[in-house]
Amino acid sequence: MKYANIKTALPGPKSKAIMDKMERFVAEAKVKKSLVPSIIKEAKGAVIRDLDDNTFIDLAGGVGSLNVGHSNPLVIDQITRTAKKYTHTDFTVIPYEPYIDLAEQLCSKAPGTFHKKACFLNSGAEAVESAIKIARKYTNKKAVICFEGAFHGRTYMALSLTSKVRPYKAEMGPFSSEVYRIPYPYVYRWPSFPSEEEVCEIAMKQLKNVFEYRVSAEETAAVIIEPIQGEAGFIVPPKQYLNQVQQLCKDLGILFIVDEVQTGIGRTGKFFASEHFGLEPDLITIGKSIAAGMPLSGVLGKAEIMDAAGDGAIGGTFVGNPVACSAGLAVLDTYDQLDLGDKAIKIGEKIRATFESLSKTSSLVGEIRGVGAMVAIELVNDHATREPASEQTTKIIHECVQRGVILFKAGIYGNVLRFLCPLIITEDQLDEALAIITEVIVSVETVQS
User: Fold this and answer.
1) Which residues, if any, are the signal sequence (predicted)?
2) What is the pLDDT of residues 216-254, one digit of tens each?
3) Looking at the structure, do residues 344 and 326 belong to the same domain, yes or no?
4) Is 403 in contact with 59 (CB distance < 8 Å)?
């Protein structure tokens, strides 16, 4: 069976009619961002169908929000049952069980043997904003340390922590104060290409230097870090680095916040990526796949820290919506029933094997990296200089979409293919998608040569 099946030029006539209306009434910031020149009709699992009955294998997964797949039956059932009873109260007006049950289950899954509590928000950016507010209130300190390459969201505190200038930060300032940025140990692009151990040592010195030259530890509330950087291109740090950062924070009385918005909910083969590194964060931010695309995010952490914000300091009218929380409970049930952590590992192994084989003959395939199903391929023009193949990456993604595979890029230079496919993708679907991507890379490389 063929899952990727493009019957018309993209966009097809039915999609084109709706897209014409989109251009008239939808802000250009969203219109220009559309990866697929088409309008969705329906989706199930890892396959999307558009209005013209073109079908696509989805390896983007709603930018990592659909670990349990499109239109997951358990999620749909939970959403429907809750919505028939009530859709909203605001938890501070009258509480509801789905919020409480989801908080309990997520706290039980979070690393660390200490007592934990949770609060829920709408988006990953809101979770980050709230974590910073909680950290500042608990420590009574203001400074926050973040990293080059980081992506934490697009609200103002989150955007201040986000690293990439375009398209996110250009002409959007001024940004929040008391934010200090240091290099993330991106081994593949570290100057002079030293070993992982050397990169770790240098990066730790740079972190310690912040407290000597830029802001004192006594004035620093938190360090916030992605255990694997997402938008920067799935950068995996040396394993010992995160442990050393956590220990330094502990020694200096600084909170250690781990942003798991993209890495959480089984993407890396464990429920939280922190588990791969033996981390026990003071606070964890979650979002994206927690509710299968419903607007839900959260902050989990040590109970005494979570309680520090005080009554009414963290929240909003719609945060922790009961329908979204019910979807979250269904996601957890699906995760356990289908053993999605194990599926993530197998997906990652297949993607890696495909591109490791291709790398033997391809001059474009540079580094293959990631953990579990969070895999990325960095494309380069030259293996020696590692010059980014940004233009070729764009061509590859465009051609993949034209052939029915939705794939998107990442990286500071836009030269990284990143995989965020639903973890319920079938073996046949993944094989077909990888075969198409391989063919496209070879064809782009052939034209280039």
Assistant:
1) none
2) 999 999 999 999 999 999 999 998 999 999 999 999 999
3) no
4) no
